[in-house]
Amino acid sequence: MPLQISDLSNAVLHTHYAVRGPIVARAQELENLGREIIYCNIGNPQALGQKPLTYVRDVLALCEQPALLESAPHAFPEDVIEAARTILGQSKYGLGAYSESKGMRFVRKAIADFIAARDSTSGVMQASNPEHIYLTDGASKGVQTALRLLIASEKDGILIPIPQYPLYSATITLYGGRQIGYYLDEDSGWSLSEQMLEEAMHEAIKEGIRARAIVVINPGNPTGAVLTEENIEMVIRFAKRHNLAILADEVYQENIYKPGVRFLSFAHVMTKLSEHEVSLFSFHSTSKGFFGECGQRGGYMEVRNVPEEVIAQITKLQSVALCANLPGQVMTYLMVNPPKPADPSYKRYVEERSHILSELAQRAKILEEGLNRIPGIHCQPIQGAMYAYPSISLPAGKTDEEYCMALLEQTGVCVVPGTGFGQKPGTAHFRTTILPPTRQIEAVIDAVDAFQRQWG
Predict the structure, then answer these.
(1) Whether residues 363 and 294 fall in one domain
(2) Any residues with CB less than 8 A from the CB of 124 and at least 6 apart, and which?
(3) Is the pTM of the predicted complex or chain greater than 0.85?
(4) Are 215 and 168 in contact (CB under 8 A)?
(5) For 286, which of 115, 218, 254, 298 could close a Cys bridge (C-beta 3.0–4.6 Å)?
(6) What is the CATH number of the domain that holds 268?
(7) Sheet containing 210-217: order of strands
(8) Which residues of 394-418 are buried (b: 16+ CB within 10 A; e: fewer)?
């Protein structure tokens, strides 16, 4: 008899990933039937028209086909050729061979330098250890490694924000752990509340769950919020008080749109506090920011305040998959080691980067203001990341899943219901990206407006 659904584990059957759920499947069916669909369900920049950075793709092309270094050297700027030669020299065997399990050391060293420079204060560089950095197939693989490490039994729980990115709920379920949801404060722009954290911990203890770690997504997905330094300090104190590790998802650190708002890493704030007793796992990715290289699957995980015997276990887990893919490792190197001001590619690189980020900021403003003009919809400020998470008023008896499916069927706009990310009981939301071109963002607002006024 072939494999049956009844043969599968409950962990598999109960694992859900909303951003590619039934509404997206229906959108693809409609598209195959000839309908025009505007996909606002996932942060996939190049699928929605964002152009790759020229410098990055030129270097990758030479690394993938080294013969071009000899046959067409004049087709590329000198700094591109130099970067490709450096990468090929350091990788020893090119991009077709495995690297060491942690990833190529020269890339990890470049990441450590990037972190130190990013987190420096008044010119004082902060240390980062290349041996505590792991190159991963996108940030998701790093998150999964950290959760695999932390979840030892069905009584082990992970605090995750509500709303959250469903990678966390799905992975915790798959690994047999327990989700401990803590609500973000929507009325204060989706900030973290110490009271809500303590309430979540209290409920977990009552249920006999052993909390192991707290997940923080900053800038926020799906909320678009950016944490203040005070909020980050509060989370660190909370983690120390309850003996929790911190998983800091910081993949949107380049995506800041509101004047006066800035990104601060958990590593920076922990160093400033001289905190060495809280274990920290930080994640970054080439998929977001202004790179938008989702398909290349590049990223890293940095680990702090973890003893060497635990580092050895992380390395063992990493070695099971041999290593992260080499093109993704190269992408990560180029993300943290861009052209310098004196380099031939610098001007074009800065122009392309500035154009992407300014377009995203403009779209965030248009979407926020446009959604807030629609009766029955309220959108908190989109300070960063790539999303809006507006609240919606529903007719009695209707759900946000029904709302989003009807929106798709009637308008071709594909968004994700708030149920897939989590929300307070009695509230309803949907998540949409800010990634479609400006004309499509305006079309999305018009479509949602017309739909909202007549639905139900």
Answers:
(1) no
(2) none
(3) yes
(4) yes
(5) 298
(6) 3.40.640.10
(7) 133-136, 299-304, 280-285, 245-249, 210-217, 156-162, 178-183
(8) eeeeeebbebbbebbeebbbbbbbb
